[in-house]
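>> received
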Amino acid sequence: MAMVTASQNVVPLSSPLYEDMELLYLLKGKSIPSGGKPWTDNQASLYLKRIAADSLKGPEAALYDEIVSELDRQKRWDVPGGFTFGVWMDLSAEMYSHTNSTDFHAYTDWTYRFTDRKPLARLRMNFTVDPFFSTYCDLQYGYGLYTSEDTLTKYDGSHVIGALVPSEDKTKYSDLVLVDGSSVQKLYTQNFSNNLILKSRDFDFQWPKRAILSLGGSNWNFNFGRDRLDWGNSHIGNMVLDDHADFHDYARFVTFSPYFTYEALSIFPDWGYQYQQDSRTFRVFMLHRLEFRPAEKVTFTLSENVMYKDSVFQLQYLNPSFLYHNLNVRDKFNAIAYVDASYAFLPGWNLYGQFALDQAVAPNEDKDAESNAWGGLGGIEWIGVCGKGILRTALEGAFTLPCMYRRDGIDFIYSRRYAGLNDSQGGSWNAQLFDYFGFPYGGDAVVVKWDSKWKVPQKGSLSMAVTLLLHGPMDMYVDVVGSSGLTSYGTTMFKGGSVDASLFVTFCGCYQLPKVNFLESWGVYGEAAFIEKTHYDATTKTSSDWRNDLQLTIGITTTI
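>> returned
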C-alpha cells in the first residue's frame, strides 16, 4: 500500500475521500472520524493512521489506497526545500434533457442543480510549503446562476424575505432582482441543453469558487478562505451548516486529536444588497463546535452558534470560548444550538442523529410570546462488502418546525449577490439569491429518504435514492412577526392543512476510464431522475396541481 503524506492542503468536499473514510471506519466498527468538514490533508492523515492497513484486503484495501491517492492529489511537482505545487485543467462536457419545461423552469426544480453542474473549464492552482503553509485558487469558465436570457423575479414589495427584508422595510427594495423558484431560466427550461457556453456574457462572474490560505501544524489548522462547508453526515441535509451552498466566505480554526476536535468558525455573509439602505450594517455567523470520541464506536458533538448583526465591529464579541447565549442583546444576536451523535453499534452498522434548537420558550416565560423553533433528524445505515465493491444503504427521516431559522430581527438566511448581464429586468447587473445556511428545505418540512450506493474504489459507482418531501406553507417569504414584534406564527405543522408533496426517484452512475499517459484522470457519469409534485388541501381532502418531470444528465470530465 502507498505511503501517507500530510500537509495543510484543504481537501474539497467534492473529493471521494470523505465518503471513503466513513466507509472504512464503519466497516471496521468505528464511528465516523469527524463530521466537521472540510479537512486538511494533515487531519485526514491522522484519521487514516487509526486504521491498521495490514488488516485490510479486497475492497477495503482499495478504499485505503483511494484515500492515499486523494491525499496526494493536490501535490503535483516537488521542489527541494519542501515546496510543492500543482496546476491542473479540468474540462467537462455535460448534456441535460427533461420532459416538462413548462412546470420545471428554474434551477430549484432540478435534482442535478446549479452546484452540481460542472463548468466547461476550470483551472486549479495550489502552492504548498510543507508542513505549515498552503494556498489554493481556481478560475473557471462556465454558466452562471442565471444567464442573459432568463426572466428573473422582480421583487414587488408584497412580502418579506426572512429578516433580511422585513415588513417595515420591504417597500425600500423596489430594485431588488431575485433568482428563485419563480424565475424562468433558459438552461433549465429547454428540453435539451448543455454546458458548452458560447456567450461570454452568460459565464459565471462569481469566481473563484474556492480560494484558501491555510496555515497549521501537526494538530491544528487555520484557514481564511472561500469554500463549501458541511457539519454532519446527513443524507438529506445538515441542520446548522449544509453543503448545498456553492461557497461561503469564512475564517476557520480547527485543532484535532484522535479523541477530540475543536472548531471556531466565522462566516461573513454578503450584505451588498442593503448598502443602498444602510451602509453601516453587517452580519457575522459565529460558530464553535466541540466534537468528542470517548469510545471507538461513538462520536458526539456539541455546538453553540450565533448570528451577529451590528453597525460597529466590536471585537469583544468574537471570543470563540465565550458562551454565545450570554450575548443576550436581542437586536444584535440570535443563537442556535446543535447536538450531533453517531453510534456504530456493530461493524458495518451506524445509528446517527442531529438536533438543532433555534428558539425555545423557558418555563418562566410567556409561552405565547414567541414561537418555538427546532428541528431534528435520525437515520440508520448499513455498510458491507458486496462483490468487488462496498454497498451502503441508509434510511433517514428529518423534520423542522415552521419558524426554524426565522426570527423577527436576525435569522439564519443568507443573501448572495451574483453578477451577470441580464436585459430582462432593465439591464440588471446583479441578482440576489436567498437561501438557508442549514437544512435546505427550511422550516415546516418533513422529509424521508432511502438511498443506496454500490462503489468499486478507483473504478466507479452506482446509486439510487427515493425521497419524499412534505412541506407546509411556511417559507422564507412568509411574515412570522406578530403584533408584539416577536416570532408568533406558532408551532403547527402544515397550518391550514396545506401541504406541498414531492417524490424524487434518482439513479446515478459514474465510471473512471482507464488511465491515459497525458491525462491525470478521466471519467463518464450520468443521472436519471423522476419527480412527481402535487398540492394537498386537508380541508377538502383533495390533491391538485399535479406535475411531473423526467430529467436526464450525462457528462464526461477529464483532468490534464
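>> The mean pLDDT is 92.
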